[in-house]
Design brief:
348 residues; alpha+beta; BirA Bifunctional Protein, domain 2; 9-stranded mixed β-sheet; 3-stranded antiparallel β-sheet; 9 helices
């Protein structure tokens, strides 16, 4: 008899159903460590409880509080990290060299077949690596730890084929009726007019960023990671707060996302190392977060900026959703299938 959906995740029948996926995840973890160890990366562990959970505008954090022990120190707000990114970059400054982490991270308000409020992020950083070199390494990694053919919700990708590389400008030109997305950057009225021309009427109060993402989600992403994996590169600069601008066209930043079997699998930057430009971006993002999400309130990460001022080596880094990779490697349909004890959101 099937286990009732309302049964807890520790129910023996539910665990038995997940076990094949979890065993494949364990093999994937071992293969990941082997891959990076063979390439000279150090596996590291960075703090989960931090003063600043991350600087992305639209991510919501889990708040906690430090209580002084025996009267030592001061009570202060701390957060569960949304990513190990800022910590790993501090290690680059410290001279740790190529590093990677299989990091538990937390993002509030996220739940679904591909999202969980607590999940695992695989991040790796290598000094002196270009974004093109990082794409080569990522392609080699994914191909080495996954079956040749992976699929999700009826979308199939042949990983033996070379991964497609397409810029954001090329993608919008191809699938959004020739819109010059970099030419509209920051000009909401111009982008609205272009969107209306291709049958996407603007919505009341919709700014440039909102409309950009609506076009990206509705018109571009359905074409990515189908048949073969796709790197979507060279994002509009305002959408890449920690990435270096493209020297050939400063309207674009050296950011990419990877799509496999229709799933957004990874996000990567050619890292910004200029502390003055990074500070300006952080100040803007803090103000924007406070405007959009009252209560999601943390300041600029001054310690990270101090590290940048000390000097971070040029290089590239990537954040890859390890649970999603496990889904692709094992054929699981839902993220909870690859979690040992998934959180039952909405249940006490």
């Amino acid at each position: 008899m099937p286990t009732p959906p309302s049964s807890p995740p520790w129910d023996p029948e539910r665990l038995a159903a997940r076990l094949p996926f979890l065993e494949r995840r364990a093999a994937l973890t071992a293969a990941t460590r082997g891959f990076f160890g063979a390439r000279g990366y150090r596996e590291v562990e960075t703090p989960c409880l931090v003063p600043v959970p991350g600087m992305e505008v639209h991510l919501q954090g889990f708040r906690s509080e430090y209580v002084p022990h025996l009267g030592q120190g001061e009570r202060r707000t701390l957060w569960l990290r949304t990513s190990p990114e800022l910590a790993l970059k501090r290690l680059l400054v410290a001279g740790a060299g190529p590093v990677y982490e299989l990091a538990r991270v937390w993002r509030n308000g996220e739940s679904g077949t591909r999202h969980a409020p607590e999940f695992t992020m695989l991040e790796w950083y290598r000094p002196a690596m270009t974004l093109a070199g990082l794409m080569d390494e990522t392609e080699e990694f994914v191909r080495s730890v996954c079956p040749p053919i992976v699929a999700h919700e009826g979308v199939e990708t042949d990983l033996t084929l070379p991964f497609e590389r397409i810029t954001m400008a090329e993608a919008f030109h191809r699938w959004c009726g020739g819109i010059d997305i970099l030419g509209t950057e920051g000009d909401a009225a111009r982008l609205a007019a272009e969107a209306a021309r291709i049958g996407v009427p603007p919505r009341a109060g919709e700014g440039w960023e909102d409309l950009f993402f609506r076009l990206l989600l509705d018109r571009v992403e359905p074409h990515l990671g189908r048949g073969r994996a796709t790197f979507l590169t060279h994002w509009p600069a305002p959408q890449a707060a920690l990435a270096r601008r493209d020297p050939a066209d400063p309207r674009a930043a050296l950011r990419l996302e990877l799509f496999v079997a229709g799933i957004e699998l990874a996000n990567a930057f050619d890292e910004l190392t200029d502390p003055l430009e990074q500070r300006a971006r952080f100040v803007h993002d803090v103000a924007e977060r406070r405007r959009l999400y009252p209560g999601e309130d943390w300041d600029v990460d001054e310690d990270f900026l101090a590290a940048l001022e000390h000097g971070m080596p040029a290089g590239s880094g990537i954040a890859l959703g390890f649970d999603r990779l496990a889904m692709l490697a094992s054929g699981a349909r839902r993220i909870e299938d690859v979690l040992w004890l998934p959180l039952a959101v909405g249940q006490r």
